[in-house]
Amino acid sequence: MWSVKKPGGAGPAPGATQGGWSLSEQSVHERRVSRALRGLVLFRERGMEIRPLADGSWRVPSCSAVSRFYVVNLEEESCTCADFRKRRKACKHIFAAVIAASRRGRAVSLMAELRARRAEELAEAVAEPVPQPVTESAIRESYDLYLRVCGLYPRDSMLVEAARARHKAALRAYVVGSA
Fold this sequence. Notes:
- There is one protein chain.
- The two termini are 18 Å apart.
- The relative contact order is 0.13.
- Helix content is 54%, strand content 9%.
- The strands form two sheets. The chain has a four-stranded antiparallel β-sheet. Strands 1-2 form a two-stranded antiparallel ribbon.
- β1 and β2 (21-22) form a beta hairpin.
- α1 packs across α4 and α3 packs across α4.
- It has helices at residues 23-46, 82-87, 92-103, 110-127, 136-150, 157-178; strands spanning 17-18, 21-22, 51-52, 58-61, 69-73, 78-79.
- It has six helices and six strands; from the N terminus they run ββαββββααααα.
- It is of the alpha+beta class and 179 residues long.
- The protein has two domains: 21-117, no CATH class; 129-179.
């Protein structure tokens, strides 16, 4: 993901806002999407190693150590990894287990299924990027997809327009930087 920085490398002041959203709120949303995407990558790379256990929980491999596994309980949406123990929010292992469970036809909570679908939808949208001109409609579609996938579709039109402006600037910077 991208971040907003001042010229010269200095970051924005703590608690600063941009377009009505605080930068900390923005980064929370970006981290949530990032964990969902990392869960999808984990499933794609090591999905065959994700196994259901007798008690209804799932055994999910670690990304960093080949022989390390974590136990994920989908009903409680909990994991034995350090990230979950610290934050108490869905980690990449939970997202990977949800995808594995839904692919195997196992019943999981509605919230967990929704998160898995959002992760897959976002991953499909960014899996094979096709170079496109940066037009207003492309920016609008791209940002609308981002908001839908994150479940963040704001109802306030001023917030939506401010967020689109940030997204538009980041997209243009990315396209210019990759050319």
